[in-house]
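Incident log, support desk, overnight shift.

02:14 A customer reports that sequence design results differ from what the structure should imply. Their input is reproduced verbatim below. On-call engineer (initials T.W.) acknowledged and began investigating.
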């Protein structure tokens, strides 16, 4: 059962605050937590220093593994779901001060940025001049961070939304493109073209991207490679590791350990 994430200030309304940057530590309280769909004028950086978060916007799903963040431009509706072991920070930025893209993206967080965010989230920090300097460094460093390809395009077309919902509920569903086409009363070629038009990916590549996002989320939450392989319906752990390595350049254990142990 998912519980609301705990904010340090119950009355926090980031758009009512004039500060150029607001950093807030958010507690998952040892349970899977979520922030329902909402929007605000300020842009938001969802930062994970432990565990994992998935951020959903109308056009896609974005994965935030440890020591990464997802950037959500101001005014965009979004929701966040966190693993039970997540250690999160939300950083809100005035739109005119951000030099990040005008679209969602997942970025790596350097040790310097990590410490800046933790420091800025400290509500006891009253030195305005020092805070201004820290914010200046943060805003200067953010655009320099490398992007991560941890994005799943979500289709708007009703029939494809049914497929997306089914696969999200059961990632192990191995129905082929032909089987889905028959289920939706479409020809296989028509469905293939529709998937590419809506997502920019082939059906196989789109489903693989879903598997990667689910895999990283579960591995970041503490699941074993064997457990994740079974959850995704792979015939063998070796097949799952091969898929993961081809997509991200490293086997899953190495990938997760690398980002989790970043210094």
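02:41 Re-run completed on a clean worker. Output:
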């Amino acid at each position: 059962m998912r519980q609301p994430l705990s904010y340090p200030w119950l009355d926090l309304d980031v758009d009512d605050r004039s500060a150029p940057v607001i950093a807030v530590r958010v507690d998952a309280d040892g349970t899977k937590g979520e922030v329902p769909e909402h929007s605000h004028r300020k842009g938001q950086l969802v930062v994970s220093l432990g565990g994992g978060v998935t951020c959903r916007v109308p056009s896609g799903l974005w994965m935030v593994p440890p020591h990464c963040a997802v950037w959500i431009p101001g005014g965009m509706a979004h929701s966040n779901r966190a693993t039970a072991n997540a250690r999160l920070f939300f950083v809100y930025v005035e739109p005119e001060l951000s030099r990040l893209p005008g679209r969602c993206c997942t970025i790596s967080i350097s040790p310097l940025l990590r410490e800046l965010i933790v420091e800025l989230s400290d509500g006891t920090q009253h030195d305005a001049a020092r805070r201004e300097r820290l914010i200046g460094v943060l805003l200067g460093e953010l655009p320099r961070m490398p992007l991560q390809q941890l994005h799943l395009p979500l289709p708007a077309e009703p029939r494809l939304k049914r497929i997306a919902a089914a696969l999200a509920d059961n990632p192990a569903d191995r129905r082929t493109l032909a089987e889905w086409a028959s289920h939706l009363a479409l020809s296989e070629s028509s469905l293939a073209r529709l998937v590419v038009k809506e997502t920019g990916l082939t059906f196989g590549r789109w489903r693989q991207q879903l598997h990667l996002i689910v895999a990283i989320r579960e591995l970041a939450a503490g699941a074993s490679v064997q457990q994740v392989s079974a959850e995704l319906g792979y015939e063998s752990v070796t097949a799952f590791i091969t898929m993961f390595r081809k997509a991200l350049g490293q086997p899953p254990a190495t990938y997760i350990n690398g980002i989790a142990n970043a210094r």
